[in-house]
Amino acid sequence: xxxxxxxxxxxxxxxxxxxxxxxxxxxxxxxxxxxxxxxxxxxxxxxxxxxxxxxxxxxxxxxxxxxxxxxxxxxxxxxxxxxxxxxxxxxxxxxxxxxxxxxxxxxxxxxxxxxxxxxxxxxxxxxxxxxxxxxxxxxxxxxxxxxxxxxxxxxxxxxxxxxxxxxxxxxxxxxxxxxxxxxxxxxxxxxxxxxxxxxxxxxxxxxxxxxxxxxxxxxxxxxxxxxxxxxxxxxxxxxxxx
Amino acid sequence: xxxxxxxxxxxxxxxxxxxxxxxxxxxxxxxxxxxxxxxxxxxxxxxxxxxxxxxxxxxxxxxxxxxxxxxxxxxxxxxxxxxxxxxxxxxxxxxxxxxxxxxxxxxxxxxxxxxxxxxxxxxxxxxxxxxxxxxxxxxxxxxxxxxxxxxxxxxxxxxxxxxxxxxxxxxxxxxxxxxxxxxxxxxxxxxxxxxxxxxxxxxxxxxxxxxxxxxxxxxxxxxxxxxxxxxxxxxxxxxxxxxxxxxxxxxxxxxxxxxxxxxxxxxxxxxxxxxxxxxxxxxx
Lengths: 242, 284
Prior knowledge:
The complex is a heterodimer of chains A (about 240) and B (about 280). Chain A has a domain at about 5-85 and about 155-235: P-loop containing nucleotide triphosphate hydrolases (Rossmann fold, 3-Layer(aba) Sandwich), CATH 3.40.50. Chain A contains ten helices and ten strands. The N and C termini of chain A lie far apart (about 40 Å). In chain A, α4 (about 120-125) packs across α6. With about 240 residues, chain A is α/β, with parallel strands linked by helices. The longest helix of chain A is centred in the last third of the chain and has 16 residues, at about 170-185. The mean pLDDT of chain A is about 90. Chain A is about 35% helix and about 25% strand. With about 280 residues, chain B is mainly α. Chain B has a single domain, classed as ABC transporter involved in vitamin B12 uptake, BtuC (Orthogonal Bundle). Chain B is built from eleven helices and two strands, in the order ααααββααααααα. Chain B has helices at about 1-30, 40-55, 60-85, 90-115, 140-160, 160-170, 175-180, 185-205, 220-230, 235-255, 260-275, and strands spanning about 130, 135. The model of chain B has no long low-confidence stretch (mean pLDDT about 90). The interface of A and B includes residues 53, 88, 96, 104 and 156 of A.
């Protein structure tokens, strides 16, 4: 099976500091791949490099291939148009714009990459946004903003949807809700690369998981296998520390 | 009656100030770019209009679009040269580079158009309109109509259209805009050309009120700065109100005190307003 996304020897440096050392990673069609790791392990650095996006000025080397084509030289807005759509950690919506304006704003890709959701279809996925359509995003709760951010990503007809910590700031009982939403999107045909702090919940929905430590992949495999991995159990599932 | 005369004068002055400021406030709001060459674009709008009227012999109303095209192209070239500095938000370099552009344009204009004062031959300048005892020209009416029309269009485009959403999005967070598939550099180009066009339009229709020299423009930048900061950066309605407010203020002040003091007085008002409301008027 040839992968939809393929990272080969990806390295990211901020000045003299390397944040990511030679990462290899793949995401297949209709696959939900998760990246886990402690704070500072390089999870956001990794997915931002895939999207060609950063608020800092990283130096990226190595290959980023979408469907076999190297997209590593494309600026972020062009990668978005080619189907790699990132929902960044933290602020992911325009706060001075309304919900509907955020959803309308997305520029349609030149050639339809994946399924392009209409605004109405986004409201079907996230019904509570419909009632907030004319509200500025600055007035929304953290969870609602995250829905707008994911909704606008769906509007961009992603082939690969990248979600960086979609559950940050959500009440614990909502985290699994969000992740189940993501699973439904994957079952409907999307491919997803997910960064998530809550490893236990992630393992419930993901197909495969990569574990990052200090900028390196230290373990990877199918979710059911990773559930039994000692390092995962020790560090994230609380097996030994409980 | 003197006060009525000055009110009418203030209306035309204020419309002129507002016209000068609209492009700048959108530019500063959307791209955080302070363009100190704005006044020289105004000067060029005036001089290209004069040149088209006198050298090409076209009517005044045909000369205006010629001036707009010329200054619009110049604005696009300027912005392309500035793109990297804008994207990197290198504010200090931007201020210096735009100031350098301003001096360069002033010098080039003096070479091309000469150093003598010129008068734009607008047919509207000699047509008087009288309201009661107050007299003003059709040119004044043109300025007022153009200012109101341009503000209405700008307000509509920014608040109601797809282009407006894009500009507002980029104004809030150009990095995030990339993730929406938007190239912020292209938006900056569009906004800069709009600002250049509005400065040229201001030059083409305000300048016929008095003789023009290639050295004009710096006062206009200062006035624009005043209007934009008082009205609230990026606030279109705030700038319209402030433009007219400043026009009335300068006109009425000039009726009772020596006009030489009117700019000092206007800046005194700026100081007071900014101490009370640091964000400017910001009418939405």
